[in-house]
Design brief:
alpha/beta; Peptidase_C15-like; globular; Aminopeptidase; 21% strand; Pyrrolidone-carboxylate peptidase; hydrolase; seven-stranded mixed beta sheet; Peptidase_C15; thiol protease; 29% helix; 6 helices
């Protein structure tokens, strides 16, 4: 049976939970599209996160890799289009590292584009009544670090595809951030299951608008 690797992060920046792992962990051992889903937690640490991700890819030889991260303040499930080759941390990671203007891969490409059918995923989520959009930036913290490293790794594994999705706070987190949007864990779980199923089924992305004016 083919394998799908899905990853979430440990909590960071003072949060008690990270919605990415709270939801991703619920998908461990699920069967989606004839594939077994394996969930792994990554440390919110530059460098270490990629070491663990690459080890999991080497061990599992997955058909699909989907990394998921928290994006407090976002209102929907954001399917990332591109990762850039720079670490520029506004806050320190969970080991106290705070790289500034540092390449993720020395002499690597400036950017890697997701190999997921990002617009088909967004369309499927919206049709299911789940708020979703294409995001044009994964930031410059550990999420972008992981997305870039993932796609760099998969560039040498053409049989696999992968990408990154950001999700909002859970309601219990938003309660501590007045005015911040949130999304229920069950809704996110349904969205990630649909994203995996769509990524497994769709080879050529649909051509619909997903851009932004700024």
């Amino acid at each position: 049976m083919r394998t799908v690797l899905i990853t979430g992060f440990e909590p960071f920046d003072g949060e008690a939970v990270n919605p990415s792992w709270e939801v991703v962990s619920r998908l461990d051992n699920a069967i989606i599209g004839g594939c077994r889903v394996v969930a792994r937690q990554l440390p919110c640490v530059f460098g270490e996160a990629l070491i663990e991700l690459n080890a999991a890819i080497d061990s599992l030889s997955p058909t699909l890799v989907l990394s998921v991260g928290q994006a407090g303040g976002r209102t929907d499930i954001s399917v990332e289009r591109v990762a850039i080759n720079v670490d520029d941390a506004r806050i320190a990671d969970n080991r106290g590292n705070q790289p500034v203007d540092t390449p993720i891969v020395e002499n690597g490409p400036a950017a890697w584009f997701s190999s997921l059918p990002i617009k088909a995923i967004v369309s499927a989520l919206r049709e299911a009544g789940i708020p979703a959009s294409v995001s044009q930036t994964a930031g410059t913290f550990v999420c972008n670090h992981v997305m870039y490293g993932l796609l760099h790794k998969l560039s040498g594994l053409p049989e696999a595809k992968g990408g990154f999705i950001h999700i909002p706070y859970l309601p219990q987190q938003a309660a501590a951030h007045p005015g911040a949007p949130s999304m229920a864990a069950e809704t996110v779980r349904q969205g990630l299951e649909l994203a995996i199923a769509t990524a497994l089924q769709v080879e050529n992305d649909i051509q619909v608008t997903g851009g932004a004016t700024h």
